[in-house]
Every structure is written in structure tokens, then in C-alpha cells.
Design brief:
The chain is mainly β. The strands form 8 sheets. Strands 5, 6, 9, 10, 11, 22, 23, 24, 25, 26, 27 and 28 form a 12-stranded antiparallel sheet that branches. The chain has a 4-stranded mixed sheet with strand order 19-20-12-21, with no helix packed on it. It is elongated, with a radius of gyration of 37 Å. The two termini are about 20 Å apart. The mean pLDDT is about 90.
Length: about 400
Amino acid sequence: MSFDIALSGIQAINEQLNTVSNNIANAATYGFKSSRANFSSVYAGTRANGVEIGSVTQTISQNGSNVTTGRGLDAAINGRGFFISRDVQGGTSYSRVGIFAADTTGYLIDSNGKRVQGYGPSNGGALGAMGDIQIPTGQIPAVATENIDYVGNLSADWKVPGTTTDAEGKEIVVPVEFDPANSKSYNMVKQSIVYDSLGTQHTLSAYYIADGEGSVDVKYSFDGADATDGDKLTFDTNGKLAADTKPFAIKYTGTNGAADGEFTIDYTGTTRLAGTATTTTNRSDGYASGAFVGVEMAADGSLVAKYSNDQSQVVGTIAIATFANEGALTATSDTSWTANASSGDALYNTPGVGLAGKLSTGSLEGSNVDITSELVGLMTSQRNYQANSKVLSTESQMMQSLMQAM
């Protein structure tokens, strides 16, 4: 019987060595989770009958360290959760490896070529339906300008154009007719960019003229055309823009097939204080058409497509799955798992919401294998193997002695 017991010990140690060896071999595998072989006694009734590997425990809940890659579509989960992928047969698998790319049809896939699951573009603030994520790789159309925001300081030190001093040093005003070509007929000019419905870029010139009564007149010229009267900006005694100032609307006629357009200029936040005239904001919406140049993942899991016109748009959001008992997931490879009755059903959410961990973009989760611990386990297994081998050799010697005595 002792032969069988020692043999069971050697067999169990061999199985443990397989587990330890697999851990060591995958010490550099992204998203790998180490396993531990658990010994269990074998009994025949009340009689000890040896040992076996009763179970193998996965250390899924223990995160590996993050490895920075700098790649825009790499991501690591900090905390609980798994990325979700679906194969062509519709089978769902879960992984901690966040190596993603777009295939030839624009779908987001993982490192095994499976389609990554997530939510479509938001509609009115709500996430889209969950499923395959497709990245639009074509052009985005032009958008006509509708609003221009201008914020700055229109200096209270400005003099009325044409102001001079007489022989006695007294200021006098010699009226000067406004002329865009004559810089002495206005105090300041600023240009803003305007896009029409075809994405053609136009220039709006705004000429600012102090009226000597605490207000500033503004005249506008579209693409160098004759300037037209615009706003009269009035300010209170503290230099703040009057509260009842409304955005000024400007209409223009489309050219080269573009639609007629209209946009407004909003001066909210502009001041009239002594000192240098400054501009802190001169921003217009709208843009020309642009071609797709790439996609990156944001920390909240959203996929941001970027275009040649410096525009970007969210085209989807990665989903994260969590489980009540993630340690019971069934391993289908060293870095992929499937759900089962013991693990419970997957709960889907976006990164950082609920139980789902947050993302670290531009990095990957490394293996959670502790090489030092594994090597210590390897040496322990070697001693146990030697001990069981000693039992076999001792038992053999005793049997030989018994046979010789007979």
C-alpha cells in the first residue's frame, strides 16, 4: 500500500509542477493570471490512500502591474472586470488583455481577432445599444458656422479716432470717416474664421471704434466686402458689458453653391477697462470636411475617432463585464475565460461605473505571476518529489530483504 501512496504523491507533484511551470512560462504574458494547485487527501473509507490535486485555484482577483505602451488602443483595467469579445459563431469570451485594433471593415477587434463588445454612440445623452463597435473611417461632412464667441478687453484708454491736440495741448476731435484701409479711422480690428455649408473658409473682420461716451461701435466686413454697421457695445461704470447685450446676427450670401448662412457674435464676458486691449477668446464653431486619421481610447472607455480637420467624435464606448464569482470562470486559454453557472451571469457596465474598474489607456496589464514565489514552490516540489522517491526506494529495499529472509 505504501507503494501506491508514494506513487500518488509523485503523480500529484507532477501535476503541481505543470501548474508552476505554466505560471513561470507566462510571467511575461499580458493579462495572465497565475494558478495554484491544491493538494487533497484521498481516503478509502477511513483509511488513508494517498494524495491528489483536488482543485486548481485561479488568482483572477489579483491584478498585475501596468506596463506603459503609449499605443492609443491599448488599455488596462484597474480593478475588477473583463473586456468582452464575440467570435463569428456568437460565442462570448472575457479577457483582461486590452490590445485592440480596427479590422478591414472598421470593426474593433481584440488580439485574437474577435469583435469587441461595447455601446454605440450616445443619442441624447443615453448610451447606444450594446454590440459590435464599428468605427466610421470615411469623411465627416462640413458644418457651417453658427456662433462666434469673442471675449476680450476693449481698452478704456482708447481715444475717439481723429483725436488730436491743439497748440495749447487741449484734445480736439477732427471727424474721420471710417475706412478699413485707414487704420486711423478705428481703434482695433480682429478677424474671425467662418465656414459655410460646403466647408469653405471665410474671414469676418470686426472693427472697433470708441465713441467717446463709454461705448464701442463695431462694424463688420465679410471677406473684405464693404463694412456694415453692427453692434454698439455699452458698459457699466465698472467696465462690465451691459447685461441686456444680445448676440449680434450677421447674414451672408453663399457662393460656389454653398447655402446662404447666418451666424451670431456673442461678446459675453468682454470688458472695457483701462490698459492694453486684449483678446482671450476668439472662437467660432463649424468646420471644413475632414478625413479619418485614427482612433484612440479615452479613460472612460469611449472610442474617439479623429479627423484631418482637427475634429473628433465619440463612435462607441467599451463595455466591462463583472461577475459575482469571477474565480469560478472557466479558462479557455491562458488569458480568456467563459461564464458558467458557478461564476454567475455577467453584469455589463462602462469603465468606472458600478463594480467595473477604471481604465488606464496607453498601457496593458502585465502577468500577476510572482517569480520568486513560484521558484520557492518549485524547490518545495523538488524536495517533496525526493521524499516520495525515498519512500519508494526504502519500500523496495524492505521487500528485497523480506524476500531474501524467506
